[in-house]
């Protein structure tokens, strides 16, 4: 079976059903994109896969790497190899970025490193992301720009080397600097980890340099279409209106 296998997932928040019988597979080593209009439930799916307790699973299961993870805590899922980029990266006054990064790999078999090795590795990755190493000593998130927060996120991704990275690029829009950081991070992740990606995005520019295996379209909490990468330029040109009409007719 696929690395990520979402089966018939119906889920709600505050009594309101957001996802309806969602089926979605991401096989190992593949890059998938999840697209859809604002409010469709894309971020909700990401949070559910990661185990955000805000959301309730009403029906269906989530399998990862052959294991039913539906009832696991976020920490256990993370240790199993799942990663979700945080939409609003944390600010922790008083904690330097390097300590935060160090803590995120602590106790992880195969990832733990000696201090010297850790510093060397982080410097290497920072260079790859074109990140000023002075940031490593700054307080986490405090006064970071959007692009800088993205760099932190990508650094964490490259350190953790998850089997599946769910990258939610949010609706807020990233500036050119942040976009290039994300592209570079995705590139490095694919090269160094050969991991799978599920990219949630409105911005198809970020996909230009990627080879995308499958595209899923979500409308009103339903996955209404799964197709190959040719769907991306089609959506660029036509938007989601035809999918929304179909969904309205089906309802
Ligand atoms: P997308 O990422 O596709 O724009 P979201 O998953 O953010 O969509 O939201 C889908 C729907 O679920 C929206 O109507 C949104 O208001 C609602 N929703 C998502 N998260 C929450 C939450 N924590 N509390 C209340 N409503 C939520
Ligand atoms: Mg949204
Ligand atoms: Mg969203």
TrEMBL record:
Q: Which UniProt keywords apply?
A: ATP-binding, Nucleotide-binding
InterPro entries for the chain? AAA+_ATPase, ABC_transporter-like_ATP-bd, ABC_transporter-like_CS, FeS-cluster_ATPase_SufC, P-loop_NTPase
Q: Name one Pfam family in it.
A: ABC_tran
Instruction: State one molecular function term (GO).
Output: ATP binding
Residue span, ABC transporter domain: 4-245
PROSITE patterns, alphabetized? ABC_TRANSPORTER_1 (PS00211), ABC_TRANSPORTER_2 (PS50893)
Q: Which family does it belong to?
A: Belongs to the ABC transporter superfamily. Ycf16 family.
Sorted alphabetically, which PANTHER family does this protein's record hold?
Answer: ABC TRANSPORTER I FAMILY MEMBER 6, CHLOROPLASTIC
Entry-linked NCBIfam families: sufC
Name assigned to this protein: Fe-S cluster assembly ATPase SufC
> Where does this protein come from, organism-wise?
Collinsella acetigenes
Gene behind this chain? Answer: sufC
């Amino acid at each position: 079976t696929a690395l990520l296998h979402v089966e018939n997932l119906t889920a709600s928040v505050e009594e309101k059903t957001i996802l309806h019988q969602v089926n979605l597979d991401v096989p190992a080593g593949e890059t998938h994109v999840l697209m859809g209009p604002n409010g469709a439930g894309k971020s909700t799916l990401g949070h559910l896969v990661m185990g955000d307790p805000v959301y309730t699973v009403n029906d269906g299961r989530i399998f990862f790497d052959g294991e039913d993870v539906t009832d696991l805590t976020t920490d256990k899922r993370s240790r199993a190899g799942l990663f979700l980029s945080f939409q609003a990266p944390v600010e922790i006054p008083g904690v330097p970025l390097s300590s935060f990064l160090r803590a995120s790999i602590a106790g992880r078999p195969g990832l733990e490193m000696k201090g010297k090795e850790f510093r060397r590795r982080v410097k290497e990755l920072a260079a790859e992301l074109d990140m000023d190493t002075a940031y490593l000593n700054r307080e986490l998130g405090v006064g970071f720009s959007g692009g800088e927060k993205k760099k932190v996120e990508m650094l964490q991704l490259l350190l953790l080397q998850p089997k599946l990275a769910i990258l939610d690029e949010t609706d807020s829009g990233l500036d050119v600097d942040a976009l290039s950081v994300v592209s570079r991070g995705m590139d490095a992740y694919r090269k160094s980890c050969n991991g799978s990606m599920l990219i949630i995005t409105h911005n198809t520019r970020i996909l230009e340099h990627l080879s995308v295996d499958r595209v899923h379209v979500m409308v009103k909490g339903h996955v209404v279409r799964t197709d190959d990468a040719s769907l991306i330029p089609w959506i660029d040109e036509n938007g989601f209106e035809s999918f929304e009409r179909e969904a309205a007719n089906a309802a």
